[in-house]
Amino acid sequence: MRTGKSEVPRLSAKEQLILDLMIASRSAMYGLELVASSRGRLKRGTVYVTLARMENKGFVTSRHEDAPPDGGGLPRRLYSPTALARRLVEAHAQLARLLPEFAR
Amino acid sequence: MTRPGDRVRRLASLICSEPTVRGIVDPAVSDLQFEYARAVRTGRVRAWFIYTRGVLACVEAVAGAWCASGSRTLPRLLAWTAGVATILTALLIWIPYRDLHAQARVIVGEPWRVLMSLVPQAVVAVLPVAMPCAAAIVLRSAPASAQLRRSIFMITIACASTTLLIFAAILPSANQTFRELVVGHPIWRGTNELTLGELWIQHAWFDLSVRGAFVCAPFALTAFVWRVLEWQRNAVGSALAIAAMVAYVAAFVAMPQLWRSFVPRVPIGWSPWVPNALYLAAAFMPRRARIVEH
Description:
The complex is a heterodimer. Chain A is globular. Chain A is built from five helices and two strands, in the order αααββαα. Chain A has a two-stranded antiparallel sheet. Chain A has helices at 13-25, 31-37, 44-57, 83-98, 100-103, and strands spanning 60-64, 77-81. The longest helix of chain A has 16 residues, at 83-98. Chain B is mainly α. Chain B has ten helices and no strands. Chain B has helices at residues 6-15, 18-42, 44-67, 73-102, 111-138, 146-183, 196-201, 205-231, 235-262, 273-283. The longest helix of chain B has 38 residues, at 146-183. The A-B interface holds A 30-32, 43-46, 48-49, 51-53, 55, 62, 69-77 and B 3, 20, 23-31, 33-38, 40, 53-54, 56-61, 63-65, 68.
C-alpha cells in the first residue's frame, strides 16, 4: 500500500555541503579536511556525527588510511561519496536549474 | 604513552556504544592525533593550540555521539531530571516566599532578589532526589545495559558535583542575602551561612555531615532505583521507587530527632548518613537465589 510519503532520500544543508566538497575534491577526504575546505561552514565537533549519519543513510562510505600517520596513533578515516549520493546531488542540481527559487 | 585524545576516547568508550565510538569518536581522535603530530614540528605554541582545539572538538563529538547513540533514554533522562528539578525547585521557592509575602516581610522592590537567593537552597535540596525520580520514570521502559549504567553513573557524578559546588561556593552567601533581605539590616551569619572550610574550623560536624550526606545521596538513591527497576521494570516499580524517594526525604528530615530519642549517646553527626546507608544496603542486597524446578 502506498503511504503517500516521498521515498526520495533527503539531504540536509550540511549533508549537501559535505557531498559537494567531496565531489569537488575528487578524492576521499577525512573529517578535518572537510572542515578546512568548508571555510567555517562545518564545525570540527559536529562533522563526525554528520558523517556517521550519512554513512548510515548510505550517502558516504569510509575506509581507514593505509599507513598509520606519522607519530603513530589511530589510522585516519577517509570518506567518499556513494553512487546514490552522487545521483542525489545531481538531481538536486537539476532541480535547482529548473526551479531557481528552490536553490535559494 | 598517552597520545592526544586518548583520554577522551576512553571516556567515550564508557558512555557510548562500540559502533558509536568507532564511527564518530575514533575519526575525531585520529584526525586530532595526525594534526598534532604535524603541528609539533612547527612549534610548541602552535601544537598546544592544536591540541586544545582538537580536544574540545573531540569532547563535542563525544557529546554528539552520546546524543546520537540510538537510544533516546539518556536525553529523556536529562530532560526529565531538568523538569522534575524545576518543578520541585519552584515549589520549594514559592512556599517560603508566599509565607513571607503574607507576613509583609519582603522589602518592597526586592522580591526578585529574595526569590533568587532562595534558588540555591532549593536546588541543593532538590537535585539529589530529582535525578533518581527521573530515572524511576524513564528507565522502566529502557532495556538495562552496562553502557546505560555507566552513563547514569556519570550523570550521578555530575549531580553530586553540582550539589557540592553549590554548598561550597554559592549557598552560604545566598542564605545570608536571603536573611538580610528579610530582616532588612546586616546580621551575623549562622551555621547555614558558613562555608565548608568555616564549618570545619568551627568543628560543626553535624552541619558538615548533613552537607556530605546530601552530596552522596544521588549515588545511594540512583543505585536503589536501579535495583528496584531490575526487580520490577514496569509502572509498579516506578511508583515504588518514587514512593521510596519521598520516604527518603521524610527520613532525612526526621532522622536527627529520632537519633536524639533512640541513640542519644552516639554522635548525632552520623544521623544524616543513615538514610543513605539504608538505601545503599537495599540496593546492594544479595539477590535471593531462584529455585529451579526439575
